[in-house]
Amino acid sequence: MDQIALIRDAEQPWQEVPDFWKAKQKEGDPGLRFKVLIGQGQGPVNMQRTQYYPGHHEAPHSHPEDEILYILEGKIHFGRDE
Question: Would the pTM count as exceeding 0.90?
Answer without folding.
Answer: no
